[in-house]
Amino acid sequence: MKRSITAVVASAAAVAATLGFGASAEAAAGPPCSVQAKACVQLHTNTAWLMTRGSVSRGGVPVTVGLAAFPTPAGTFRVQYKDIDHYSKQFHGPMPYSVFFTNTGVAFHQGSLKVQSHGCVHLSHADAVAFFNALKPGDVVEVVK
Question: Which of 5, 25, 59, 100 is 20 to 30 A from 84 (CA-CA)?
Answer without folding.
Answer: 59
